Structures are given as C-alpha cells and as structure tokens.
Amino acid sequence: MMELKVSDITEVLDCEIVRTLSNGSIIIRIGTEQHNLNLLKSENNEYEFILDHTFHHAKIIQSNSMETKTLIDGQPMTVKKHLKLTQVLGKSLSLAELGGGINSLTSQIPGRVVSVLAETGSPVKKGDAVVILESMKMQVAVKAHKDGNLKEIKVKQGAAVARNDVIAIIE
Amino acid sequence: MGSKISSILIANRGEIALRVIRACRELGIKSIAIYSDEDARSAHVKRADQAYHIGPATASESYLNINKIIEFAKRVGTDAIHPGYGFLSENEKFAEICEKNGIIFIGPKSKAMEVTGDKMKCKAIMIKARVPTIPGSDGIIEDVERAADVAHDAGYPVLLKSAFGGGGRGIRFANNEQQLRQEFEMASAESRAAFGKSALYVEKYLERIRHIEFQLIRDSHKNARHMFERECSIQRRHQKLIEMSPSPIVDKSTRERIGEIAVRAAAAVDYLNAGTAEFLRDQQGNFYFIEINSRLQVEHPVTELVTGIDLVKLQIAIAQGEEIPFEQEELKMHGSAIECRINAEDPFSDFAPSIGLVPNCNIPNGPGIRVDTYLYPGCTVSGYYDSLVAKLLSWGNDFEESRIRMKNSLYEFGIEGINTTIPLFKTIMNEQNFIEGNLSTDYLERFDIINKMNEDAKERSKKYSCAAIAAVLLQSEFGKRSGRRVSVGGARSDSGWKTIIGR
Amino acid sequence: MKKMAEGGGGEDKIESQHSKGKLTARERISLLLDEGTFIEIDKYVTHRSEDTESKKYYGDGVITGFGTINSRQVFVYAYDFTILGGSLGEMAGKKIVKVMDHAVKTGSPLIGIIDSGGARIQEGVMSLDGYGDVFFRNVMASGIIPQITASIGPCAGGAVYSPAMTDFVIMTENVSQMFVTGPEVVKEVLSQEVSFEELGGARTHASKSGVAHFVAKNEYDCMDKIKKLLSFIPQNNLEDPPLLETLDDANKIDPNIIKILPENPYEQYDMTQIIKSIVDSGEFFEVHELFAENILVGFARLGGRSVGIIANQPMYLAGALDIDSSNKAARFIRFCDAFNIPIVTLVDTPGYLPGTDQEHNGIIRHGSKLLYAYCEATVPKITCIIGKAYGGAYIAMGSKNLRADVNYAWPTAEIAVLGPEAAITIIHRKDLKQSTDARTIKKKLAKEFREKYANPYIAAEMGNIDLVIDPMETRPMIIRAIEALINKKESRPWKKHGNINL
What we know:
Chain A is mostly beta strands. Helix content of chain A is 8%, strand content 56%.
C-alpha cells in the first residue's frame, strides 16, 4: 500500500492494487474508492490503460524515492510518495532543492553565460546579479540567493549551463 | 519589367523557412536553404531542394552574416533571396547589397526600408501624408519650453521618451506640466550623461490601447491594397501572443477608412511588396499610426486564412514585377481566424526558456486547423534562436467557431521534452473577456490571466489525478525488473567460491 | 509484543529522531526495499548485560533482515538510533554478523545503514567483540558480495572501520559524520577547535579523505543512489552484472565527439562530455566525484552491459596522475575486477604531478597501486587513448603491457616518453642554448617532435595500439570489443595473495 499525493491536490491518499481478476482487469483502490483498470500495454515505462472506461496513456518521466513525474495524456503530473517521511525530512529536502547545498547558487534556466558581473572573493548581497545568461534571445540575470562572500564562480563567459547547474558558491 | 524567378535562397530558419519553401514548391521554384551547426537536422533543411551550411550556431556568424550569405547566393547563382522575418528582413544594407549584386530581394527597396526603420523620419512623412499619428513632438526636443508646448497641444498625460534608450528605460510619465518639467530635467541629465546630448521626444499617453494592424501589399506599378486588419492586443513584454482577424472592435466602415489610410501610408514611403501598417486604437476609437513593418510578419497566416490569398506566393509574384491580381473591392473577408504563438517557455515559471530534444510531438489537425511549425518527433529546440516553436491557427465561419476549434486543438497539441506556453492559451480561449472581445495591450495583467492559468492547471490536475496514481501503482508493481541475471559458469553448489580465498 | 518491538526506543525517542530531520531505522528500510518485501529476523533479541540500569529493548538497537530491491535479493542491517543511541552491544553485534553470514552464504549484496553513537560502554569488552566480529566478516565477504554502507548519522571511534572496508560508502549531507576521534577529544588533546561537519562530515570525507564515495543530498537521495549503484553491480562475484535492454543503438556514431577536444592541445576540456557521448543514454554514474577530481571513475552501460569507466579529467591538474587519483582508480579497478565488470579506460594525461609534496608523501608507492590493479585485473580491459599519454602515466593508464585486451587510440593521441616541449629541451639542449631565437625554434622542433614521435601510428606499428580509430566510432568500437571479450577467462598461477604496495 502506498501513501500518495498528487501535486496541486491537497489530499494524501492511501492507494494500492487490490487484486487482479481472471479476465486481466486490475482493481485498484485510491483513498476510499475502488477503480477498475484494464492494462493494455506496458513497455519501457509507458503504460496504456483504460481506467473506469476512459483511455489514458501514461509515460513515467522520472522516478525516485520522493516522487514520480509522469505525463498523462500529454499533461505533466507529479505524484509525491512517502508523505509522512517527507515531513520529517522537511528541512533537508528544501536544502536539496538548491542543488549542491545551501551555498550553491544555481541557474533556473538553461542558457549561455554572457557576462560574469561579480568577482571571486567579493562580498555580495541577496539579489545582486552575479552572472547574466542568455537563452533564446532573452537575457536573464542570475541573482545571489543570500548575503555572503562569493567563494567561487563556477562558470566563465561563453559557458553553457543547464537548468539547476551550479553557477557560484556563496559563503 | 521584372524577371522570372527560378530559384530563391531563404535567409532564415525554422517555421518561416519551411513556409517559403512550401510556396516555392507550389510555384516550381528551386528552394535553397542555409543552416548553421545547430540546424543541420532541422525540418527546413530536409525540405529544401538544396541546403548549404552557413556557419556556427551564433546568429551573427550564420543567419546574420551578410557577406557569407551573399557569397553563397552568388556562388549558387540564385535569382532571389527571401529574408523571412527577424534576422536580416529589415536590414536595409542587406537589401542594398542584394540589389547591387543583381539578386532580387523579396521585399521593399532599401530606400523605403531606410525610411520605415527611422521612427522619427517615418512619422514626419506620415504627418505630411495626413496619416494620423500619436499626438506629440515631430522630432527631438531639446528644451523644456518646447516640450511643455507640445505636451499642452497633445493633451496630458504624456510620455517622455529618450530617442536613443530602448525598452522600458528612459520612458517617463507626466500627468501635468509641473511633473513634465521635473521629469524633463532628470531625463535630459540622464540622456546627456549617457549619450552626450539631450535627445527626448514627447508623446501622448494612450490608455487601454488596442494594437490593430493592416496587412499591406504594393507592387512596382504603384498598385496598393490593404488586406484587412489583424488585432494583436494580447501581448507580453511587447511580444505578441495571439493575433486574430477580424478585430472584434472594427466595423465595416472603420475597416474601409483605416484601410485606405494604411494604403496611403504605404504610398507615402514608396513601399514595395508585403508589409504591415501598425496602429494603436485608444478607448475613444481613434486610430494612430505607429510604424510600418517592412517585412512579411509572423502572423501573416491569419490574413491568409480570412482572405484565401497566399501571401508568400504574392510576394514572389510582385518581386517578379507582376501586378497585384485583384482589386480592392474584389477582396473579401471570409470567416474569422485566430493564431496562438506557441513558445518554448514555461508559463508557470515566469516564462523561463526551455530548450532540448523533443522526443515526441502530436500536431493537431481537423477542419479549420493549420499549424506552421518546424517541430517533428526527434527534433531539437535550440537555445541560440528565438523561442517560437509553432504557430497554431484556427479558422471558423465566425469567431465562436474558430475559438472552439482553437481550444480543442490546444488540447490535441502534445509536445514532449520541453515546456511550452500552451497552458496559457488554453486559459485565454475560455476567458470571458477574450470571448467578448474586450481586449487591450495590458490584457494579461488587467484580467489576472496568469493566476487564472495556475487555477486551470490545478483543475486539469484533478482530472488526471486518478490516472497518475494508477501509473505510479503500475510502475511499482510491474516496473521493478532491473535486468537479467546472468551467471558466470556453474551453479553455486559445486566448486563453491569460498575456496577462492583458500586453496 | 510485536508493537513494542517495532516501537524502537519509544515514542519520545522517535520524536527526537524526527525532530532532527532524520528518519527511523524502520522507515529507512521501508524506503530502501521494495514494498512489503522486508522480513525481519532477530526481532525480539535483547541484550544480556547484567547491568540493571540499562533497559532491555527488543531488537537491541539494530534492525536486521532481508528483502528485495528491484526484485533483487539483499540483506540489510540498520542501526536504530532511538534505542540507546544506536550503540552496538554484544547481541546487536551478533545480529549483524548473522545477516552478514546469510548474505555470504546466499551470494546477496549486503547493505548497512549506520546511525550509531558507537560502542555501548556498559557492555564493555563484549561490545568491542561485536565490532571485531563484524570487521572480520567484512573482510571475509570482501570480493564475494558487494557491501554498501550508508552513513546516515554519527559513526565514531572504531566503528568507522567497518564502512571503510566495505566497497562503497555513501554519506548524507549535514546528517552523517564519521571520525575516529571526535571534536571534543580533539579540542582537549590538541586545543584545536573544529566542528563536527568540518572534521568528518559528508563533504569532508567525499572531497578530502576519500572515505565517502557518494554524498547524498538527503535520505531519499541516499536510498536512490544505493538502488542506482546496485543496478550496475552483480549479486555476487560469480555472476555477471545485470544486463539491461537498452534503446540506445550500439552502432550509433557521434560525428560531434571530436568537437569536444579544443583545437589547442594545451587547453582544458571536460572528459565527462566524451564519456557521456559514448555510453548508453549518456548516463554516467560517477563514483568518488569530489575526490581526486583529476581522474574520473564510475559506472555506465555500453550496449546494455554495465562497465567501469576510468578516465583522466583534463579540467583538473591537466589530468595528471597523483597520489589520490592513483588510489581512487586502483580501488575502483579492483572492485570491478572482483565483480566481473569490464573496465574501459580513456586516457589523456600529461604524466605524474611533480613536486616535493607528492614525492615525500609517496607518489612512488601510491602510483604503483594503479599499475598493480590493472595488471591484476582479469576482466575485459579496453583502453582508448584520447589525447596525451606520456611516460609512466601512459603505462599506468591501462596500456597494452599491463595486459589490456584492446587498445584503441584517436588520431589526436600523443604517446611519448615525454611531452614534446620537455623532450626537445633535453634532446636539443645544445642547439637551443646557442640559438638566438629560442622560442621559434622550440615551437618548430616541438611540432616536428609531435609529428615524428608522438603520433599514435608509431605505437600502432609496434602493436602497442591495436587500432587507430575514427573518434566518431568510439562507441561502437568499444561495444564490439566488449562483446568479443565478454567470455574472457585468464588463468594465473595460484597464490595466497600478492603484495600490493599499500
């Protein structure tokens, strides 16, 4: 039995596969309701099934201990697991969102470094622009996420960065 | 006058290059594409009759590299160059070099482009041609008294703009003369500090404006036509998101009146080929000319759908010296069309750009649906160029039919691997003010559209939540196989591996 | 009774554990293993100490048992911090030893989760006994089953030696600490102030000491990394690593791979880009990422088969070999050899790092470990020289003479005793001294040297390089080599064990 929560929906639901019928149908329970599922295809993390008489195509994009990202009929849906444990881990999870650690300044967008505005070793304040990235003809500034000293700038002009890449370390 | 074109080099990429290639195909003209490192596997390269590698990914070294492009054009002996939109399409030097090298530039003459490119010069010509422009200064104002006079004539509130500074910088607002004098001093000082001189101009501030433009076409025999209007009020940061024709606010007589003005504007600058006259309409219904875009525009399909005319083929015909094949009265508007510009941006994360591989995509179809795109399953969206990946268009006998068709096809449109602005359009198609035609350039903020979009996304989540949970349950049940276990020689019961340590 | 056993040290202790942002041992096991597959053994064992002060707890502070991870049988033990601070007592030690024995008997991986205050003082020698027995089993099992240790909490004193002898250690940021002597004693004895994190936190051990192979961002990430790691390694040393059907074409060629190398051979580039271009789905699971960054080691798949990758990283120290990198690579090679994982080596190194620091700290000893490991390994060994390969470093990085099976080289490879610049200064010493324009002559001579001596065809003519390949074909060429060699069996004369220079 799994404890699942769909993002954007506040309820945490107990879910499980109840049983498999002889005709190939699977009965699943979501919360207090039972649903009938006819699995049509299951291959390479892609599933096609009929759930309560509606056809769906599901693709698992990414799955780890904390959550599973899927595409349901083209719509991105994230399902979070182990809710109680996530509560306990609370603080450490939000730190993890920041990439390499609380001191890492990460990029929110993919792009190329147009200019590095600050110098290694210089003090920065939260909100100061450290680096300018360019992507799809738009220029975006990556701003310091906290006050501190710019210990290291991990990129140089012309470098390509991906979403969530570490731009700099601020201590 | 004019010569038959047998080959066209398309100095552009993406969906517009594909568009021009298609027109070439129809006319039996050889299409020559150019591509940078990034675009080697792009759709337009696959479709063209010939394709040449033009340089590395950076635009300045490839699609903007005039010397290289002209060199190629001469080497392959192309008759004409179509610049598309963006890149070199409004670069009068490029047009001039084409002319000097005997290559037909499919667009206006360089002289006309020079005029339309200079806002102040253009405005002066328009005033002479009795084309209504935004009340304000004719040219640059150097002293505050002149500014006060102009502002008084135009009527407050006014905007004080710097002739050199671009974008939001340098635009100041003044509600009355006192404020104007204050702002003028500061703006002057800023301008002098930045550019060495005080170069400002005054413009009447228009509230609740609607952006309405007219498609123009003029040939080398001085025939000019307007091809009706497009309303492009829904914008974000001055970039158009949705265009439609007809405009809900333009009636038949206004259409004729402004259309005639637009045609006059085209003649005033001796325009040639396709272009667009842009107007702003204030709340009182006054139309003010802003500028002429001297190129084929992104939203040209909207006009194609309501007039039935292929604009690119028409461009090529005019470039060959032919006359426009229809009279103004013969041109009729039929039905209603809407275009949504699908960008590779994440509307839920402040429109952060999204690039990468598109492993799969499902292009919508059906009556009244047209999609101009370079996407195909397995293509890549590059970070070196702009974010427009597809133009989704719908046509219907009336606005309602075209709106519903657009709404449905937005749901059909599936693009995997990148984030797109499709959710934003889904919300707008259902939004009451859009349906009623209650538009203005501040539409997004005025009706809190972004928040509505977030709410709608949550609602949609609910619809798929059971299926999402089902998928997770299926994966945990059936998805756990991590690979075949392969044994190295022998069962465990004999030889035994404890003996590897000892004798 | 069952409830009591599962209740650990009591509600309040569980609260305390949670308030520190840590999960309990049972919660961790439930995250790690497949849903519903955990069978606990020795659930009701209690300590036998006569000390009436210490309460008796079921389980005695460690939870042991077996289950599956992605349908693979594993044995697991997890210290329970809520019971007597997770300290190890006699019975707890016996419990751990029992699962270790089971794991070895059945040939299943062993995973240990450490969250322990150390030995249980009240039990005296008997708790030290416990550790001793565990250490012995670690060694006996070493090379037979994969042993993974996850440190998600403190681990101090002698207890740290068990993780050190296991194959992989994963620490969790801000939660794990490992040290032989804690900060308080350090302060007392040496008057040195140092924080727990700085002395023995996850990042410290991952980057400075090399004790930790992985740093997990949080407990979820920790479990995910363990599962990912397991997907590359077999159940035991008699099995091949799991084969995964891959959608990535084994014949795929990458015409852009050569662009990763800069025009200028002295410019740095990122070797991971080349690795990602070659392996299945561009997935490279790096091990020891933050330690000895001048060499890269890690797991990947080629044609669905799990392989161990070793590659110089020109971005750090120009890819030179030194003490730490020799240690890092040698250990990784020996692990792969023990568990039938083919080894793929990518070479671009200018040599060994010079200097007194290296020499005095024994680069001679440590460097020899790398050579030893390559020679000792009998798994398929494939080497591809990408760029520079000078002198001893050329030999050390999986050269033919160390009995690599297939040696490829790119046309950009430079194999020489010394780099061109250094070489000509020695060879043409006299000429350069006498010349007026040493710089230009040097450049010319270096170029000549490069073309004459340092190009890979010379080595190829002698058979030290089997084939100079087109860079874009690197992936299919390596995959085909692995497929050809997968049934390789080498017999060596029996010996109790060699004498690797430790």
